[in-house]
Amino acid sequence: MVVPGIENFINIKQEKIPLTPSRFLGDQGEVFLEIGFGRGEFLESIAKQHFEAAFIGIEMSLTSVRKMLKRLHRANLTNARVLLADASFTIRRCLEQGCLAGIYMNFPCPWPKKKHSKHRLTGSLFIQGLACVLKDGGFFQVLSDSQEFVEELRRSLSDSGFFDEPDVVRNLGTRIGTKYEMKWRAQNRDIYRLISFKKSTPDSCETLRGDEMPHMKIPKDAFSLSILRKATKHPLVKEHITIIFKTIYVAEEKREFLIDTVTSDDGYEQRFFVKVVEGEKDVLIKLFSSGLPFRTEAVKSSVTELGKLLLNTNSSGSSE
Ligand SMILES: C[S@@+](CC[C@H](N)C(=O)[O-])C[C@H]1O[C@@H](n2cnc3c(N)ncnc32)[C@H](O)[C@@H]1O
Prior knowledge:
CATH architecture of the largest domain: 3-Layer(aba) Sandwich
Number of strands: 14
Distance between the termini: 51 Å
Order of helices and strands: EHEHEHEHEHEHEHEEHEEEEEH
CATH topology of the largest domain: Rossmann fold
Strand order of the largest sheet: 1-4-3-2-5-6-8-7
Structural class: alpha/beta
Number of helices: 9
CATH class of the largest domain: Alpha Beta
Strand content: 25-35%
Bound molecules: S-adenosylmethionine
């Protein structure tokens, strides 16, 4: 089935990183990004009002992305594109440095509980990412009904040193007509607008490098299913990455093993399979090609570290 408007979808997993907006939007003037567009009212309206500019929307919800694509198709808009991805990771690791003139974030989930705070888009890595992808003088604008969220964001922007002192205004009056704006207005809640302008670029703006599939070979005599089971027993934690090997699936007759793997890079989690194939002389360890995780440090390490673990487990007599 063809999704209406699919031509406006950017399949980030299959694109060359860094993502350069001009690849999709041509020479369409300045480029603006909306984080978490939800039903898409704002993105449609701003793209309609500014044909001279280009817009990218990032959403984590597949349903929202499908609806947004339909919306752009119906409105016959050619100056907007849509990404299905986590905004924090995409901004930090995938977008070209300095490619955006402005970033909008309307009514983000405030994640007020402590145990959910890792999802809150206020942390220093997120702010650093914004400063990497914005041009000098580019803006970051947020609307929210949560004073606590806005205050935390204000502090992070201010402490980062990459942004001018943020300007926060309560009940500015302008309306953008999104679902959440209408919901909070109907409840007479205060609405805060924060805006801040980028003043400097961080030294370390690191987009993902090289998307080659990592692989490793170990001697056949260093491998058996019991060694694999022991080697994958404990999580691996190294600086900012974590690797957890979960279930091992065995296709005995083919001497192939699939290992359900979860990784985290600075809190960004991915789930995929590592494949182990027993050959005549050696054992090949590689990423299983379906699932397509981003080739982050943790994903690449899941292959090389598994190889090392198998060799160590074998040579140490595979103690419990
Ligand atoms: C409270 S809704 C607001 C939607 C819309 N902007 C509005 O004003 O009605 C927050 C939206 O952000 C999306 N979202 C949350 N975290 C995200 C992330 N890390 N990356 C991209 N989208 C995210 C959610 O899927 C949801 O659609």
